[in-house]
Structure formats: structure tokens, C-alpha cells
Prior knowledge:
Elements: H1 2-8, H2 12-28, H3 30-48, H4 52-86, H5 92-105, H6 108-124, H7 128-153, H8 159-185
Helix pairs in contact: 1-2, 1-7, 2-5, 3-4, 3-6, 4-5, 4-6, 5-8, 6-7, 6-8, 7-8
Amino acid sequence: MFITVIANHRGLVDAAAVGLVEKMISFLFIVPSSMGATVSALTAQNAGAGKGDRARQVLKDAMTISVVYGCLITALMWLVAPAFIGFFAKDAAVVAAGTGYMHSYIFDAIFAGIHICFSGFFAAYGKSYIGFAHNVLAVALIRVPGAWLLSNAYSDTLFPMGIASPCGSILSAVICVVAFTVLNRRGAFDKLVA
């Protein structure tokens, strides 16, 4: 919502480009989102059966799939973003602005898969507060202020504004790795505690 407000203040072309790319990103993020739900379900089953090692393996495998998918979709969008965006928008200015935004935002496909999988894992163990915390921190500290600052600093392109999202996901991923490492050392993922 905040990103849409920022884009709307930049004018019609940028607002249209950001809106279009945001919808495309929602579609492209189906795989990482599905991996998060998969991790949650399979982790809960394995944790409930007392198989913490298998639950951690589910997390590792799902993150691997998500990161590989993220790398592939990032490379693909760098190659075909103008054609992909041009399929939905005929205005050359919207396609150009959207391409710049997509080229920076799409890197989020790599990092979001990591924290989405971790969030599913934490939720299965009754620690969904970690997912809530890292998302709030990423939005409040990086995504919204970063998009606003970069939008104001670079009024002629959307590329810098799109960088805020992957940077927020990097923060989320770091928080998740730290939380997982600390809790794993304490044995929190060896068995499901009701």
C-alpha cells in the first residue's frame, strides 16, 4: 500500500508501471509462497512424529527449490521483462519504467523464498512470532523508507525504488537464519512442544 502511494506521487506513468509490476510479482511469487505452505505442513507432520531431522531437511530442500527458482526467474526477467510487461501495457513509457522497476525488484524472488520457507518452518513449531517480527522489521526499517528515499533521490527511474524490496528480504533472511541457529542450538526443533 505504501509503495503504491509513493508511486502515485510520481505521476501516471510510474504509478501504472509499479502497479503492473506488483501484479506480475504476485504471480511470479507463487512458487516461493507455495514452498512456505509446504514447509509448514510437512514440518508440522515430521515434528509431530518426533522427526526433527526430517523437518530440518524439508526446510533445506524447500529453500533450495525456492532459491534456484528465484535465480532462474530473475535471469528470465532480466532477459524478457520488456516483452513480458509489454504484453499487458502498450504505452512505451510504462513499459520502460516497468522494466527498470522489474529489473531491481525481481531479485526479491531469490531472497523472499528463504524467509518465506523459514516462516513456514517457525509456524509449524509454534513460533510464528518470528515470521511476524522479521516482516514488520523489514517493512518498517527497509522497504517503505528505502522506497521513499530512493524514489525521491532518483525521480527519473524506478530501478532504485525497486531495490528496497530485495533489501528488506535480505534483512528478513538474516533474522531468520540467526533465529534458526539460536533455537536449533537450544534443541527447539528436536520435538514439537504443545
